[in-house]
Amino acid sequence: MSSLYKLSISGIRSFSPTDHETIQFGTPLTLICGQNGCGKTTIIECLKYATTGDLPPNSKGGAFVNDPAVADRSLVNAEIKLGFISVDGKSMTVTRNMQLARKRGARGANTFKTLEGQLAVMARGHKTALSTKNAELDARVPQYLGASRAVLEYVIFCHQDDSLWPLSEAGVLKKRFDEIFEASRFTKVLDTIKTLRKDMASDIRLIEQSVHHAQVDQARARKIREKLAASTAQAEQYTGQIADLTVQIERLEREAERLFSSNQAFQRTLGEHQRLSLVRENTRANYDRLERSLDKVDWPDDELARALAQCSGDQEKTRAALEAAEADRASAAEAMSDLQARFHALTREEGLLSYKQSQYGEKVARLAELEKTTTQGELAARQKTLDTALAAKDHEIAEASTRLRAAQSSLAREQQSRAHYMREAEECGQRARELRQKVALASADQLDAERGELETLREKRAKRSSGARSDELQAQLARDKITLARLEVENDDMVSKLASASSSAELQTRRDVLRSSHTRKKNSWRRTVDAHGPQFQQLLGVDLDPASAPERLESRIRELEAAQKKDAAAEQSAREEWSRAAAQMQSAEENLAAARQKLSQHTNAVSAVLEGDLSEYENAVSEAEEDHRAAVFNLNTFEVTRSYQLRAVEIAEKSSCCTLCSRSMSEQEKNRFVQDLQAGLKALTAEKLRADVDATDRDVAELAAIRVDVVQARKLSGEIAALEAKAAASKSAHADLSSSLEALEASLKKTTAELSSLQSLREPVRAIASDSAEIDKLEAEIKELEGELGDWGSEVPVYELQSLQKQKAAELRAVRQAVSDATDEFHFLQKDASRLEGQIKDKQLLISNLEKALGETISLQGRITEQEELEKSLKAKIKECETLATEHESLCTSLTKEVEELQRSRKEIEESAKKEIAALKAESDTLERLRADIKEYEEKDAAVVEENTRKLEEVQKEIEASKATMENTEARIKQLQAEVNDFKERERQMRDNMEYRQLEKELDRLEEQLNELDVHNAEVEKERYEVASKKLRDQISELTSSLYGKEGEVKQIRDQITNFQKELETEFKDIDKQYHKEWVKLQTNMLVSNDLQTYSQALDKAIMKYHSMKMDEINRILRELWNQTYKGTDIDGIEIKCDVSNSGKGRSYNYRVVMYKKSSELDMRGRCSAGQKVLTSILIRLALAECFGQNCGMIALDEPTTNLDVENAESLAAALNNIIDFRKNQKNFQLIVITHDEKFLSHINGDSYTDNFYRIERNENQHSVIKSLPIHLMQDD
């Protein structure tokens, strides 16, 4: 058990920040006294802050710490140290530190800080720190003291400002009682359990659905695996067939390639024969052309070659000379360009210099003009005149300002004198009024009035001294005492009857409990029936009968479950058919898309080579082969054709006739004929013919390469039509199945919703049936108990006897109150007589003082006259001062205007002169600038003008010379070009003779090569190759068609396999494990939910029982304390009522303090006096400390006698004395009483429990100090 043993304070409120004041707590009683404001309440505040960390009310911002301004310090450190014994018997110390600093430059602004504290334990002579963080101290100190934070704050160390909290408004009272009972901790547990059960119920419903769905999915997965195995076997079978077809196609393609390779010889032979024939024809044509147009020479070949070489050499020399002459022309042109550029630059420079020369002339004229009009020294003279005028004005302004300051000084002196005289006049008037009041007080009329009142008081005393009312009160007291004795006898008789009836109390209690339980259960049953009856009637068509409702409900649920199972099976079957149809539709669409894609690929491949429809492929192949043969023929006959055309051009130019028909032509026809032949020669080259051969060869190869694409495209075109029909059929079937599935889903959803509604009624219906049976059982038990009570022979229950006993006690208290009232009135009469006697003595003293004052009236009248004369003279002086002040004020005004006028005049003079000076200065600056510009031109630009003119003339001469050189070079170039053309013509004639001799030799060679080729055999081989190639192409096309058909079927099957696998991997992945896992989870959650429900019910009952036991205990102690303490008769007793509220959020308790008056229960709040509030609050705190402070047996009372009369204060002291006697043997019981009323402390009989007491007082520095004094000193005081 915990207890306090020592408290040290420094720097808190009025306690000094440099010293530590200490108080030692004893057992069972610690007494603390002192005057108001000495710091007694600070003891409670320090105990509360040390144990809970909460500052006192209205002490934020540092008000709890000694103010730095009062302590004359910039920083005040405060410390509270509390030593205590913890609940486990360990000696512990808690230290709390604070700091209050005064800010510089901010009046009244302080900075409050909570510093780290310390919680230490003394073990084996060593001090060990457990924590220094304030948050941990706030939590751990209440644990070591064995009391909750709320009990420490509201019960044990309750602040004086909060001491009346038991009679506060309902919200505050509920909050504090809930904190004391720690209700939130238990309600949170119940709410958490309820939330867990609600969440688990939702989870269980979801898990049940998951188990059902997992079971359905498990069956569907089994069927899909069977389909997957069958499809896999079929796909493997088709794959083998595809492999055989692929091998056959590859073998035929190899045969086709081998056939093509083996038959290339005849193609080469035929191509070579065509080429040689064409070459021979072209060569023959060229030979004939040259023969017709050639001037033949009989020179030998070697001599002809030497002449051709010499001609070429002479031509090269002439061409070299021509190139040199062209180079000279280019150099001359470049030199001419440079000269022209220089000429243009000098021309631009000449224009700029001409502009500067014209500007120079203008500036010279301007300078001459300004020198005539501007006079030297005028600017300095004007500046000097301005300075003299300004100095004169400044002197006038200074004199006027001096006169103004003198006038202002005189005005201020007169105003001060006037104010001084006015203050003296007011003081004289005030002294005169005070003297008049003293004279008025000493009037004779007042003396007569006071003497009359004295006679009246004496008459009242004579009337009240007769004693008639006192005798009447004494007689009434005698009668009331007889009545009191009779009522006490009747009360004792009622108590004996109550004792005799206690033997049947248990049966009556049981009957009352059963009745209460029956009523509560009946109301709950009725609410449940009202809540769920309409839904039951709507779903089942009959009213809710508690006896037959569960059976009807279960029957309907079984019917709906069967219907749901049937609908679910139908829906599952329809869903499987829909899935198969979806797979078939998807497969058909994918096959169709694949076929279209392949067709697109083959079509694109064909379109890239073949222009037109696929049906034109064979014609295109034939045309390409024909074009290739024509290109080869053209290439072979190129030389012959070219020679023939050249010869035709030559003959036409010489003879003006056609080579072929020998027809003569006019000059115009000849020119057109030659132009056409020359254009043909330019367009027809060997490279172009070879390119034509290569292009036609590529065309043939490309057409051969797309042969397979053409075959596949034709095949796929037929297959796509069938696939489109199949896709449309599968899409239509899928749409029909979707509509059917939607209808089945709607039916299943409706059945499931109805089943869910019925299942939601299962628990309420069972509860209704169970509650109905329980209600019947309670009614039977109540009847049985009433029969047993009838055997006792007494029909009056115990609670009625208790009510009668309370009535007797109330009558007894009323008589006692009447006795007390009569006694009080008797004492009042005695006190009233004493009061009249005191008033008579006061009047006699006042009359004596008035008689003395009448003698001093003459001297006072003289002093009044003196003060009035003095006031008149002062008023005359005030008028004189006001006249002088007015004169000085008018003088100040005129002088101020004069000064302002002088300042304005000075400003005008200064501004006018500044403008003239600025104009003169601008003219001077212009002269200087013109002189500088003229000088610069004469020194720099004049020489540049002459130099530029000279250079310009030289450039013009050089341009003329360059032009003559260029004309000579151009004439020489024309002469050399004519010589080059003549050499070309001679060279052409020699080359034609050499070509003629070469063509003659080439014709002989071609004839020999043609005779060596076997053309007939090559034609035969060609026909045989075409037949064999067509046969192989047909076989390959047939096998390829079969192959693609098989591949399409295999792809469709594999797509189905992929869909099955994907479905197993996504929708049905680990479905067996999932089903087992969900089933185990369902069973586990159901068991846990049941356990939580059992625990919640047990905890709820325990909480209710604990709360009711504590409330009974608190009210029992409260009744005992009230009966022992309260001496009035207006309140029979008080209790704390606890009303239980069962809201939707759970159970809650509402508290109120009530009082009993003549068997009537009334709320005390707003109906009791201030003293009754204080007494009630103290007794409630004592009762709460008794109930909740078993481990922490301490309580502190701060000024418990506030608003209590003497009798109730003495009764409270007696009650505290009884509590101390009862609990003095408890080791940890400590009562701390703090009060200024030492008489109250003496009634507690402190000398029986302690040897000393503590007195708190202020020292010479106004700091609070704690003194320990012997107990007998307080009793002597």
Description:
- With 1277 residues, the protein is α+β, with helices and mostly antiparallel strands.
- It has a domain at 3-166 and 1192-1205 and 1217-1276: 3-Layer(aba) Sandwich (Rossmann fold).
- It contains 26 helices and 14 strands.
- It has helices spanning 41-52, 68-71, 134-145, 149-156, 170-181, 183-262, 264-293, 301-373, 378-441, 444-464, 468-500, 505-540, 549-609, 617-636, 638-655, 667-683, 686-705, 707-791, 798-854, 857-1012, 1015-1066, 1071-1125, 1170-1188, 1206-1223, 1238-1243, 1271-1276; strands at residues 3-10, 21-24, 29-34, 75-85, 91-102, 110-123, 126-131, 1133-1143, 1146-1157, 1160-1163, 1194-1198, 1230-1235, 1252-1258, 1264-1270.
- The strands form three sheets. It has a six-stranded antiparallel sheet. A five-stranded mixed sheet has the order 11-12-3-13-14.
- Strand 11 (1194-1198), helix 24 (1206-1223) and strand 12 form a beta-alpha-beta unit.
- Helix 7 packs across helix 21.
- The chain is flat, with a radius of gyration of 68 Å.
- The mean pLDDT is 77.
Question: What tags apply to this protein structure?
Answer:
Rossmann fold, flat, five-stranded mixed β-sheet, 1277 residues, 9% strand, 14 strands, alpha+beta
Unreliable stretches (pLDDT < 50, length at least 5) are none
Strand order of the largest sheet: 2-1-4-5-6-7
Query: Can you count the beta strands?
Result: 14
CATH topology of the domain at 3-166 and 1192-1205 and 1217-1276: Rossmann fold
